[in-house]
Design goal:
Largest sheet: 7 strands, mixed
Number of domains: 2
Structural class: alpha/beta
Number of strands: 23
Radius of gyration: 24 Å
Helix content: 25-40%
Shape: elongated
CATH topology of the largest domain: Metallo-beta-lactamase, Chain A
CATH superfamily of the largest domain: Ribonuclease Z/Hydroxyacylglutathione hydrolase-like
Bound molecules: MU-OXO-diiron
CATH architecture of the largest domain: 4-Layer Sandwich
Distance between the termini: 45 Å
CATH class of the largest domain: Alpha Beta
């Protein structure tokens, strides 16, 4: 995609990464991503807002080939998908300075070896006039790293929102209303990247209410010309609302745990509880993360392998614990051959969640009548707890 004008003298100059399938060597990207950099030309100064992942430096530099001068590079975020091409930009534009938050300066020096004398730090809400265009820098720590900030362009009412409101979505169009996939991609992005920072994001969303925003231009995925919908979605995701949903990530080695999951699914579904189950041997863990955005309960299902849980279940539990969804209840089900410490291991792995742990159901071998009765009891407990908490 070539540079495109968003508003008069405001251009998208980023890069679309159609083929990237893993982010941070961790997060699945089924739809690729983009690194959105923006060029803002005032009558006196020219600013580049963020750069691109170093793997696509050539694309950004080609997009800037007709730009003779850049006065400032705004570095919202030191993570390399934003900042990794700053050294190349500074190399071409010898007088350019980097603008960032005080914490951002330290990280840029450490991570990218950018000389400190080429970095200017700005305070929260500090303005910068470019001549006819005024930037206002807003510190947004922990959205996603401690140094993160975003920029509001006052005259054009554009919020350059860095990772916030982003989506990992490679698209031929620049705008969200041109791509039906964006809603799911934005929720996946929130779940995989932003969910651990829910309470911080909540505060910032309230703060943005006092800004008149016509356009949201994030660092990843499409731009929002009508930002109401994406703001409302985020407000719902960070709210305390819980859905009457049970997420069941599981693995079954010889079929016993799967029979337990089948039974639990049936009983809960009959009672009107939505069940989202993920067989972790084939599941997209990004979808599992999305399911936890507003689910009330999680039940991990695992066989016992060498006295512990199946490694895929341990990995999923680790991920859920790290993403810190607003789950309220959790439990563990599974089968063992003769014994083991699977429950202790998974409970420990999930210990960062603020959940009530409901009695686990661990059976030996293939489920028997009493085992199904215990699963019925677990289902009944979940349904009762949801009801007591007005989760319908
Ligand atoms: Fe787009 Fe936190 O990186």
């Amino acid at each position: 995609m070539k540079p495109r004008e968003i508003k008069d003298r405001v251009l998208w100059v980023g890069a679309v990464d159609w083929d990237r399938r893993l982010f941070d060597a961790l997060i699945p990207l089924p739809d690729g991503t983009s690194y959105n950099a923006y060029l803002i030309e005032g009558s006196e100064k020219t600013v580049l807002v963020d750069t691109v992942d170093p793997g696509m430096a050539g694309t950004l530099m080609a997009h800037l080939s007709d730009v003779d001068n850049i006065d400032f590079v705004v570095s919202h975020h030191s993570e390399q998908d934003h900042s990794g091409t700053i050294p190349a930009v500074l190399d071409r534009y010898k007088d350019a300075k980097v603008i960032t938050s005080p914490k951002g300066k330290g990280l840029l020096v450490e991570h990218l070896h950018i000389p400190g004398e080429r970095i200017i730090t700005v305070a929260d809400e500090e303005p910068l006039s470019l001549g006819g265009k005024t930037l206002e820098f807003l510190h947004t720590p922990w959205v996603h790293w401690p140094e993160t900030m975003i920029t509001y362009l006052r005259e054009d009412k554009i919020l350059f929102s860095c990772d916030l409101f982003g989506s990992h979505l490679a698209a031929s169009g620049l705008y969200a209303d041109e791509d039906w996939r964006v809603c799911e991609a934005a929720k996946r992005y929130y779940a995989e990247v932003m969910m651990p920072f829910r309470s911080t994001i909540k505060k910032h969303l309230d703060r943005f209410d006092s800004y008149d925003i016509d356009i949201i231009a994030p660092s990843h995925g499409p731009i929002y010309k009508d930002p109401g919908c994406i703001i409302r979605s985020h407000k719902e995701w960070v709210s305390d609302y819980l859905a009457n949903t049970v997420v069941i990530p599981y693995v079954s080695m010889h079929g016993s745990t799967e029979l337990m999951v089948d039974h639990l699914t049936e009983i809960l579904s009959e009672a009107g509880v939505r069940v989202e189950r993920f067989n972790l041997t084939v599941a997209d863990t990004g979808k599992m993360a999305m399911a936890t955005v507003d689910a009330a309960t999680i039940v991990m299902g695992s066989p016992t392998v060498l006295a512990g849980a199946h490694p895929l279940v341990v990995s999923a539990a680790f991920m859920v614990n790290a993403l810190r969804p607003k789950l309220k209840f959790a439990s563990i089900i599974g089968s063992c051959g003769w014994g083991g410490k699977m429950v202790d291991q998974l409970s420990g792995t999930l210990s960062g969640l603020k959940v009530d742990m409901l009695d686990p159901v661990i059976i030996q071998g293939k489920p028997k009548v009493k085992d199904y009765e215990n699963l019925d009891r677990l289902a009944s407990e979940i349904i009762t707890r949801h009801g007591e908490n007005n989760i319908f």
